[in-house]
């Protein structure tokens, strides 16, 4: 399998794009280091939908149309209605460690949010952490423990299997969603490389060969992962067979991806030179890249 289109620049000049989504005929992204959420048409017309006093990360929509946004440092989820009114939705400060991170929301209104698990900026060593479940009634409970830097997540076609990127484990992990939204029956969807040692952050980063970050799933239940270790964007089947690889443009890395577009066969890549905040704020260089692929997103 191979991509069918060339790489095209949709938008450039962001600080650090994360958590891309296709919703309502537009692409949505968090410009994390500029504290804003953007929406873009397929032709690249951009609007700033919301500004925050914190770094936004995971995005998702409730059945009633409200947008949920993870605020990383406050470790909260806020809801934004169609008029732009922002209200507190869920307090995430009790269960996990490190900044709150990515999120997925299903069609019933259940949300699952991961934590980075440690303070990378302070040089802490990676450690196991939690994903929490935010129920439709807004209660927050641990969904699963013992994950290593849970990042992007996708739902497979059965709508009961969740695949999670464990970035510092070089692994995609699958779990089953119970009726109450808890996560059970953990299994390896794909071990992408030998996990690095966790003795200290420097040793971990030196040995990290594959770092799955953002994820996207196609209609055949194969998963695209953005390799934050510099490996571009890679499509794998369950078990780890590599089906396709898209290299990032020179000087850039891929940190997140999403499938969507008018015909559901456009892959959006969030690219940047690195993920170091002070560098990105000094020289905004985050770019949104698109390309067409053979197998579309699920309907």
Structure, explained:
It is a single chain. This protein has 299 residues and is mainly beta. The protein has a single domain (8-292), classed as TolB, C-terminal domain (Neuraminidase), CATH 2.120.10. It is 4% helix and 51% strand. It contains two helices and 24 strands. The protein has a four-stranded antiparallel β-sheet, with no helix packed on it. The chain has a four-stranded antiparallel β-sheet with strand order 2-3-4-5, with no helix packed on it. The longest helix is centred in the last third of the chain and has 7 residues, at 201-207. The mean pLDDT is 94.
- Which architecture per CATH? 6 Propeller
Average pLDDT across residues?
A: 94
Give me the number of helical elements: 2
Domains counted in the coordinates: how many? 1
Radius of gyration: 17 Å
In angstroms, what separates the terminal alpha carbons? 20 Å
Strand order of the largest sheet: 1-24-23-22
Q: Roughly what percent helix?
A: under 10%
As for the CATH topology, it is: Neuraminidase
Instruction: Report the order of strands and helices.
Output: EEEEEEEEEEEEEEEEEHEEEEEEHE
Q: What is the approximate shape?
A: globular
User: What is the CATH homology-level superfamily?
Assistant: TolB, C-terminal domain
Total strand segments: 24
- Please give the CATH class: Mainly Beta
Q: Helix/strand-derived class?
A: mainly beta
Name the quaternary structure: single chain
**Major β-sheet profile:** 4 strands, antiparallel
Measured by DSSP, the beta-strand proportion falls in over 45%
